[in-house]
Amino acid sequence: MLIGSYSSSLVLISLCVAILASYTALDLTGRIATAKGRAVFLWMSGGALAMGVGIWSMHFIGMLAFSLPINLGYDLTLTALSLLIAVLSSGFALWLIAQPTLPVLQLAFGALIMGAGISSMHYMGMAALRMQPGIDYDPTLFGSSLAIAVGASAAALWIAFRLRQHTPYVRQIRGAAAVLMGIAIVGMHYTGMAAANFPEGSFCGALDGGLSGDGLDYVVLITTLAVLSVALLTSVLDARLEARTAELARSLTLANQELTQLALHDTLTGLPNRTLLADRIDQAIGKVAEQGGCFALMFIDLDGFKPVNDAFGHHVGDQLLKAVATRLRGHLHSQDTLARIGGDEFVLLVELQALEDAMDVAVKQVNLVSRPFRIAEHDLQLTASLGIVLYPGNGLDQLELLRNADAAMYHAKNGGKNGYSFFDVSMNSNARQQLQLLQDLRTAVEEGQFCLHYQPKFDAALRQPIGAEALLRWEHPQHGLLLPDRFISLAEKTGLIIPIGEWVLDEACRQMREWVEQGHGDWRIAVNLSAIQFCHAGLVDSVARALQSNRLPANRLTLEITETTAMRDADASLTVLQKLSDMGVDISIDDFGTGYSSLMYLKRLPANELKIDRGFVRDLEHDSDDAAIVSAIVALGQALGLRIVAEGVETDRQQDFLTRLGCDSLQGYLMGRPVPAEQFMLDLQQARGGAAPEEAISS
Ligand code: C2E
Ligand code: CA
Ligand code: CA
Q1: Which intervals hold domain GGDEF (predicted)?
Q2: Handedness of CA 250, 256, 258, 260 (dihedral sign)
Q3: If both were cysteines, with which of 321, 385, 505, 665 could 412 make a disulfide (CB 3.0 to 4.6 Å apart)?
């Protein structure tokens, strides 16, 4: 019997190759598990090749490590066949563990096939020696080599299947598993080798025309290492790429979430915005349709936010809005939605147990806002006006609900603010009428549908006319003659008061000029200024222009501004009034007694006249307080050197009383109602003739 020997360095190398091949195989299974489509097939075939070459070369290097006292060679075809078997069984193994599940039976069957593959490779490789006479195999060792092959395959398949997902420490576990698998494969090989007995006098039939010679081990080793490294490198790089892609996908999802947050929320308060609110209302409507129940929608508008914002600046304004949002939000259930839909406008969507609960919520919200806010060292006081709609009942869709809630909110605002109003159908028509009126007002400005009526002013003691107050009227094509209360505030809100006011100034001056030419050069024409006009930078110029183009001396014009307007921004008013006064225009403080005048300031105002509000005149005869106030105003006016006018004089007794108290001039229905200019002169002529003044309109 020939005694074989092993080169220990080659044995070691074969073990390393086996471990490396195992590691590569395990790594590749991870790739296959996460790949999709064609990539699965590519990874599988590439993997089968790398793993097959690895296992085979371990075996081949193992063969090279073995030497007999005779020369050895390897039959090319059989060697190639053994390589093919290695590749095919590797492919099968990879395919098996790429399956979604691996039941025990399948694992056993797979292990059997793979074990058979490895054994065939090994014994095919042995057969490639073409020993003459044939190799004599020890049956026990041969049997155990087969058992080791199947057992090692089973272990390898199971480990590979378990390790294919990315888990923490996967590399370390994979490394340990690879060492185990490598030892198993090597064990199978050397058990198989140990089983082989070469009878004395054997010779190698493959020496002729087969592979042989020195350096073959290096060629095989280097090729194998190259194949394995390429496979491993590709796998590792691909894993990195995949990790990067996953990272990118994660940040993309995050960015998407942020974008959604931005698109659906108000940036200042973080509350839902109009878009999200619309969606939530739709959901709430859907829920009521499916499960019944009800909800309320509350339109919350802050009263007095704008002055705070103007006085303390946007920074404080923003902080205040945030504080309001936080306070309101803090007292809601998580399923309720509080949205901010405009500067100081919020909308609250609350699910209700019963419709009656809406009032409790509304009261709570109003109270929450009315408690003072401490912002940047300031104690700020706000109130809120709330409009409430209920669903079902006050609208069919979110648009209608919001519109109605808005109308109800306006109602609450007009009703004195700091409170709430439930929607009522009449409010809606009001709101719609206002909108229509606003459109009509724009047309009115373009088409000049305005006219002035004049109400005479009389000298109290002499009972002689001393001029008139010009009062604006709108000849509405459908509604007829409209009084200022119907449209002045609308004109102020929209800024239309500026062009309208300029027209009034010009028209009043033109009329006064006509009267001057008719011999009434001692009269004065009074024109009312709204607060908006008064704050408008162009006012002084407009006045100058109206006077100049109508060639009217400035002292024929009286400008009436209300006490409240004059006192609002005292210093700014002073500047404007001073300019007007310097021009020679008369200044009258209208509705005097209704605002809060500071005496100090009143003294500095370049005013010429105080006009006692008609509220005091009305109750003069019954209310001793009013009488006291009127006489105090008269005394004050006299002390300050101002003329005192009383307006709203309707009875003879009022006339007598006011005259006795010392009023300089009087104005009221008793002496004349506001009428068009022609009628005005007719009335005066008739009055001189002793007849009662005629009424132009009955208000
Ligand atoms: P005002 O300046 O206090 O004008 C006096 C108002 O009292 C006028 O109402 C007049 O018709 C009414 N009146 C006069 N005598 C009596 C009376 O004896 N009894 C009663 N109950 N009322 C009397 P009108 O014309 O409806 O004007 C209302 C307000 O509209 C005015 O109050 C004024 O603030 C504003 N206004 C009128 N014309 C203009 C204008 O051209 N520009 C601006 N900005 N406001 C105007
Ligand atoms: Ca007036
Ligand atoms: Ca007045």
Answers
A1: 293-425
A2: negative
A3: 385
